[in-house]
Amino acid sequence: MIALTHGDWHLTVSPDLGAAILSLIWQGRDILRRAPDNATDPLSTGNFPLVPYANRIAQGRFTWDGADITLPATPSFEPHALHGIGWHRPWTVEQHNDHAVRLTLSCEPSPEWPWAWSAGHELALDDRGVTLGLTITNHSDRAMPAGLGLHPYFATEPGTILTLPAPRVWLNGPDEIPTRLAEASAVHDWTRGAPVAAAPFVDNAYADWTGPARLTHADHVVEITASLSARWAQVYAPRGTDFICVEPVTHRPDAHNAPPGEDSGLARLEPGQTLEMTALIRAFSKP
């Protein structure tokens, strides 16, 4: 575990556990869900990076440049492949000081992803909060599909309100794979702010995200702002929990199987090319 601190901010991250954030604390408050002691599953932590793709690939299958690609199903999410490889691998600490750390991951072709690639993940605290940077570089001799994302579990209170300026949402089929775009109200409209506790179950990708997502609590506000490369926000809001996920991602779920011509966000990286994204999580007291 690596501990970072700056002013009112404290962060712990586990390079060995998929570069997962174990805690993010501001003025004594949990901004992200705190991981249990001795956590062994990134899904129980506060955040982890999504690389070389985000969310689901239907049946773990897609076609790329005329080749049929089959990935193993992710355990507990069968028959789909989920969130890439990065959250299942230990990362290497490249640089580290009291308020920032840079982690890297290098992967050769494997059944999980038949291209060679590397990733970098930077976590840096300042007066505002934490900036999270994520990159992927193609080291293969042929083009590779690529996507990035972050999976923050924001701590909530009984009266927490989420405001998410995203007017459209992907509707899911019974297999949790997106089927078509609709107005946000077809699932749950967060654009003007809505109580998290009163929301139905949500696990959908919101499109055309135009600004920061804001969580308004009783005495403070938390915001997440992502770079322009992350134009989708996957919202995961299970009922009866003390968290909500608002995940900035560079492509919609199952973008690998999007029809030709759709702006799905999936990047095409030629050999040596890099895709990057950043996000800022900040907090401030209510006036």
Note down, in words, how this protein is organized.
With 287 residues, the protein is mainly β. It has a single domain, classed as Beta-galactosidase, Chain A, domain 5. It contains no helices and 27 strands. The protein has a nine-stranded antiparallel β-sheet with strand order 10-11-12-13-27-23-22-17-20, with no helix packed on it. A hairpin with a 5-residue loop joins β18 (168-172) and β19 (178-183). The radius of gyration is 18 Å and the shape is globular. The two termini are 35 Å apart. The mean pLDDT is 97.
Structural features:
mainly beta; Beta-galactosidase, Chain A, domain 5; 9-stranded antiparallel beta sheet; globular
Can you lay out the helices and strands and say which pair or pack?
Elements (H helix, E strand, L loop, with lengths): L1 E5 L2 E6 L5 E7 L2 E2 L18 E2 L5 E2 L3 E4 L2 E4 L10 E2 L9 E5 L3 E8 L9 E9 L3 E10 L5 E3 L2 E2 L2 E3 L5 E3 L4 E5 L5 E6 L10 E2 L6 E6 L5 E4 L3 E7 L5 E6 L5 E7 L17 E3 L4 E12 L2
Antiparallel strand pairs: 1-2, 2-3, 3-4, 5-15, 6-9, 7-8, 10-11, 11-12, 12-13, 13-27, 14-26, 16-25, 17-20, 17-22, 18-19, 18-21, 21-24, 22-23, 23-27, 24-25
User: How many beta-strand runs?
Assistant: 27
The succession of helices and strands, N to C, reads: EEEEEEEEEEEEEEEEEEEEEEEEEEE
Please tell me the CATH architecture by its name. Answer: Distorted Sandwich
The CATH C-level name is Mainly Beta
Count of structural domains: 1
Q: Could you give a short account of the major beta sheet?
A: 9 strands, antiparallel
Q: What value does the average pLDDT take? A: 97
Spatial sequence of strands, sheet with the most strands: 10-11-12-13-27-23-22-17-20
- Percentage of residues assigned to helices: under 10%
Q: Tell me the β content.
A: over 45%
